[in-house]
Structure formats: structure tokens, C-alpha cells
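#lab-general

N.A. 3:47 PM
ok so I finally got the sequence cleaned up, no stray characters, all 476 residues accounted for. can someone with queue access submit it? mine expired

B.Y. 3:52 PM
send it over

N.A. 3:53 PM
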Amino acid sequence: MLIPVILSGGAGTRLWPVSREAHPKPFIQLPDGQSLLQKTFLRAAALDGVTEILTVTNRDYYFRTRDEYLGCNTSANPAFLLEPCGRNTAPAVALAALRVAASHGPEAQLLVLPADHLISDLAAFSSAVAAAGRMAEQGLLVTFGIQPTAPETGFGYIEAGDEAGSGRTARRFVEKPDAAKAAEYVAAGNFYWNSGMFCFQAGTLLAAMESTCPAVLQAARACWDATRDRLESGATMIELDPVTFAAQRDISIDYAVMEKAGNVAVVPCVLGWSDIGSWNALRDLVAPDDNGNRSLGDALIVDSRNTFVQSEDHLVAVVGVDDLIIVDTADAVLVAHRDKCQDVKKVVQQLKQNGHQAYRLHRTVSRPWGTYTVLEEGPRFKIKRIEVKPGASLSLQMHHHRSEHWVVVSGMARVVNGDREIFIQPDQSTYIPAGTQHRLSNPGVIDCVMIEVQSGDYVGEDDIVRFEDRYGRHMR
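B.Y. 4:20 PM
back already:
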């Protein structure tokens, strides 16, 4: 049995301002309309014999991830391990292996897939997975090595040794090299890019961790035991125990296992693979014009060369520029030389240091019940557009420092306002004073859209006391 395990997390800081902490890289929509996460899920679901796909992700991303999968229309059943915080890939893979071994036995195979990679040759991917599966049956820890097309300094490398079944032994893993070393590796012919994809039996991985990183495995077992005690039989959405998970070591599966174990093999492959690690990689997905310019959205490019423009909401016009990356979103604009795309992460670091929320949130923020968009904000006020999905409901809540005025634009709203429950039609409104318990829900079959005007001494998002919440968010 093959169980694909999708690892979905990470902020994707080099793809700011589209990728942010609350809207990470796997949710980025590509030019064809699908997200990287959806493409990974569909790629896994298309493999022979796959009936279940396990996703390890942050608890905050669960509802968005579930909604992404619902749009994929496949027969594969999604299951989830939900982390309360990030602890890198070794704890995530260990807990996935413990869950797979408990549900399907130690001989079941895990196919570990990052959620934010792109693979264009699906037939080659299927063949590589089949080869890796045959090697995993022999007790090997298998990684997928990508045939390098250039001396890339942004990837780690795997040095391959002798033939081993359908692949080769892995002699060593090499950190991201400088340009000279990368050129040397490519010329040697037996070095491959480390894709971060793996295949192994659950029992093989756990045995290897017992040898290479026993403390990591012990901590993972403690977390799994504490989690399993609360599970219902057949649960497909598993929230990992927060106390024991917080004690996990922050370490990658490469450092903890793959670089130390003696039974590691590599399947060399050509998959049309990209880790979409920068704006240059996304730019390459768009066909260029005669001057090497590329654009997504409403863009006008005049007397310019080798420039990429992506615009979400505005017309972006550029004149007389070369070799630029320009990304326009509702609340931020990035302008960078294409040779400096790897340094976009420095912008995010600076935003964090300055306490600017643009590193974390977009103007439009996803919630389990729908979305809200901040239209305008100033001293003592904030105006939002709120969209609630059919059948969804916000928490029963209260604010200490702000009052709210709700005006329904379309759909229907059921509103709890203090001790009253009322229905609000389009063009109708209600006023909620500070300190009043209230709840908004959508009893209709179309989205409920409303405008919310907040006013008060403080209009921050953390001025909220939840009393009831169907989505299990923090109550205080």
C-alpha cells in the first residue's frame, strides 16, 4: 500500500508579497488557475492504487487546505495530521510514519511530497514513484534526485554511487554549493538536485530513526501516544497533542536520517521539476514576448526587456526598464532586479523586525467561514467587506473596545445581537455596541456579503473574546 504524505507549510518568503505567513506558498495560484497544493494533491491521487492521501500541515491551514482539496474532484480520501506549530520535516515525517504504521501496518509505504513543488512530466513522475516503490520494498530509504540542468546554487545535491535496483546508492548529501562547486558537480555527471521527495516503508523509516536520531523518534512516539489516546476510531482529521508536539526538535528529515543512514538510495529522474523557489521560477511559467517580457494580469510594458509584471487589482505600466520583477497586490508592491530574487526574503525579515503586518497577512484574509477584506483603516475606525459561505458561521463573540455596524449587501444574514436573533436582508443593517455578544451566520444557499464598520478606541484583530466556535479556535 502506498500512502502519499503531503508536507504543507512554510511561509515562502522569497515569493512575497503573494506568499505570506497566513497565506503560504502552497496556496499560490498558478497561471492555469490551480494552486501548487492542488497540483500536488492531484498528482498524488493519479498514482496507481492510491486511495488515501495524508497531509501534515499547521492547524491554522486546515480549513483552507480542505477547501482546496474539495475543488480537486478525485476519489482519493484526504486525511490530516494537524500541527500546533512548526517543527520542520523530521517530526512531521516521523508522526506520519507512526500514523501509517498504526493504520496500515509497518510495510505500508510513504511517498513524502512537499506541497509547493511543480512537476510537468506526470508520466515520468509515475515511473519514478514505481521505481522507488520497488526499492522501498527491499528496505531502502529512497530519495528522488533531479537531473541538474544548470549549476544551480540554490539547491542541495546528492552524490550517487553504484547501481542499486532501479536506482543508485546515495554516497552523500551536499549542502547548497557556491557557483564553482555547483559547476564541478554538474560536470561530474553523478550529482543530482535533492528534490526533498522520499519513499520508504513506515517500518524502515522508524527503524532508521531508532539508529540515527533516537531522541527525535522518542519525542514523536510520545506525541503520537498522547494524541492517539483521544482519537476516535477511523479519524481522518487528527490534531496532534500540543504539549508533546511543542517538545519536538526542530530538524529536517535530511539532517536527522537521510544523511546518516546506511541504506539510502536515489532514483535519478527528469520530471520537469521546479521548487518554485523564487519569482524567476514563477516568471518562467509565462510565455515571453519578442523582448523577453512576461506578464500576468493587467500590465502595459513599453520599451522594456526581460521584465516580468504580475498585477492583481491595478493596471501596472512600465516604461524603459530592463530585467525587473514587479509584483503588485492590493496592499504591497515588489520591485526587484531579477538577479536579486533570492533576496526578497530580506524584505520579509525587515517587515517582521518593524512589526509590519504585511509579512503575515494580505488585505483579504481567509477564515474557516469565508473571507474578510480591509477596505480602509484609520484612527478609531476600520471598514471591512465580509463574505460568509453558505451554512457557515462566525464564532459567538464580543469586543471590549469597538462597536460594529453591519450592512448586508447580498445574500441573507442570521444575526445574534445580545439577546435577540434577527434576519437581515440586503440593504438592511444592525448595530452592535461594544461589550455585546454577537454572531453572524449564513442560512442561505449563496454567499452572504456585508460591509462592517468598526469604531472605537482600538480596532485590532486581537480584541475578540470567543464564547462558542464550531471551528475549534482558541477560546478566551
